[in-house]
Amino acid sequence: MPATTAETLVLLNYQVTVAPLVLLSTADHYGRSAKGTRKRVVGVLLGQNDGKSVRVSNSFAVPFEEDEKDPSVWFLDHNYVESMNDMFKKVNAREKLIGWYHSGPKLRASDLEINELFKRYTPNPLLVIIDVQPKDVGVPTDAYFAVEEIKDDGTTTSKTFVHTPSTIEAEEAEEIGVEHLLRDIRDVAVGTLSTRITSQLQSLQGLHLRLQDIGSYLQRVLDGELPVNHAILANLQDVFNLLPNLSTPKATGKDLPTINGAVNGSIGISGGTSENTELAKAMSTKTNDQLMSIYLSSLIRAITAFHDLIENKIQNKRQQEDEDAKKDEAEKTDEVKKEEKLMLNGTAEKTDKESKESEPAKKAEKEQKGKKKG
C-alpha cells in the first residue's frame, strides 16, 4: 500500500472549480475533431492557482495525435502551446497556464508522460478529464494531480495521479450566457410544462444517486469496511433534521392512554392513534394559497391580454378612419382642381372666339378710313 505524504494531503484539500466556458470549448473541440471516433482531444487549461484553490477559467485546443495500438507513441505540439500561451498572456495576464485536459473518459497510460511535458510551463500541472458524452447525472469533470507514490516495502518511488474534488462554478456573465444558450437550443416543439417536468426528473435522479451513495457508505461503515467519521455522521444528522416530520401526533387529550397511543403512532408502532390532521391541513392551506395566487395571476394576465386586444382594435379603427378621411380630402381636392381647369379652358376658348369675330370688323374700319383719306 502506498504511504500518504503531506503533499498528497494538501492536494486532496484543493478546491478545483471549472468554468462552464471550458466545458463548452472542450465539447466544441471534440465535436469538430474526434466526434464519431475513439480518439480523444487534448488542450491547455488557463486560470489561477493560489496554493489552496484552483480556478479554471479558460482553455484552448492543442494538436495531438496518438497510436491507438501503442499508448506510448503520441505527439503533442509544444511549440504551438508556447506560442498560444504567449498570445493569451497579452490578452489577459492573470490567466496563467495551470494544466491540461483531455476528453477521457478515463485515465490512460500516457497521461503521466504528457503531464511531465507540461511541467515545463507550471511546476504542478492540473489534469482535468472532461467527459463530453456523460451518461450519468452529475459533474462531468474529474481533476487529478501527479504525486510521488512512496511504497511501504522501500522500493523506488513512482509517479501516480491522486483525485481531487472538482465543481462547476460560473460567474454572473457566464450564467447569463449559459442561460441564453440553453434557451436557444431548447426544442421549440416541446412545451414549457414538459421542460419543467424533465428538469425535475433529472433533479430527482441526481438526488436518488446521492441517496444511494449515502446508503452504500453507511452500509460499509456498518460492515466495518470503513472507519466511523463523526463529521460525516453529523452532517447526515443535520440533513435528516431538516426533513419534515410527517408523523405529527394529534393532541386529543392529556390522559396517559391517549399520550401512549399518540407516541406509539408517531414512532410507527401499531395501535397508535396518531393522525396527520394538522400537517395535512397546513399543507392543503399552503397549496390552496399557491393555487389562488396562480389563478389570480392567470386571470390578470387574461384581462391584460383582452385589454391590449381591444386597444389594438380601437387603434386600427382610428387609423382606418384617418386614412378614409385623407382619401376623401384628396378626392375633393382633385375635383376642385378639375373644375378650375375646365373653367380656365372655357374662358380661353371664349376669348379666342371673340378675337376671331372682331377681326373682320377691324378690317372694315381700316378700309373705311383708307377711303376717307383718298
Concise synopsis of the structure shown:
With 374 residues, the chain is an alpha/beta fold. The chain has helices at 6-12, 20-33, 78-91, 111-118, 172-185, 192-222, 230-242, 256-266, 277-373, and strands at residues 2-3, 15-18, 42-49, 53-62, 64-66, 74-76, 96-102, 126-130, 141-151, 158-164, 166-168. Among the domains are: 6-178, 3-Layer(aba) Sandwich (Cytidine Deaminase, domain 2), CATH 3.40.140.10; 191-228; 282-320.
Describe the structure.
The chain is of the alpha/beta class. Among the domains are: 173 residues, Cytidine Deaminase, domain 2 (3-Layer(aba) Sandwich), CATH 3.40.140.10; 38 residues; 39 residues. 56% of the residues lie in helices and 17% in strands. It is built from nine helices and eleven strands. The strands form two sheets. Strands 1, 2, 3, 4, 7, 8, 9, 10 and 11 form a nine-stranded mixed beta sheet that branches. A two-stranded antiparallel sheet has the order 5-6. Strand 3 and strand 4 form a beta hairpin. It is elongated. The termini are far apart. About 3% of the residues have low confidence. This is 26S proteasome regulatory subunit rpn-8. Keywords: Proteasome. Belongs to the peptidase M67A family. InterPro entries: EIF3F/CSN6-like_C, JAMM/MPN+_dom, MPN, MPN_RPN7_8. It holds the Pfam family MitMem_reg.
How would you describe this structure in keywords?
374 residues; Cytidine Deaminase, domain 2; 11 strands
* Average pLDDT taken over every residue: 81
As a whole number of angstroms, the C-alpha radius of gyration is 44 Å
Report helical residue fraction: 55-70%
The CATH class of the domain at 6-178: Alpha Beta
Shape verdict: elongated
β-strand number:
11
Low-confidence stretches: 263-275
Q: What is the level-2 CATH architecture name of the domain at 6-178?
A: 3-Layer(aba) Sandwich
- The helix count comes to 9
Secondary structure class reads: alpha/beta
String of helices and strands: EHEHEEEEHEHEEEEHHHHH
Largest sheet: 9 strands, mixed
CATH superfamily of the domain at 6-178: Cytidine Deaminase, domain 2
Please indicate the percent range of residues in DSSP E strands (runs of 2 or more).
15-25%
CATH third-tier fold name of the domain at 6-178: Cytidine Deaminase, domain 2
> How far apart lie the N and C ends?
159 Å
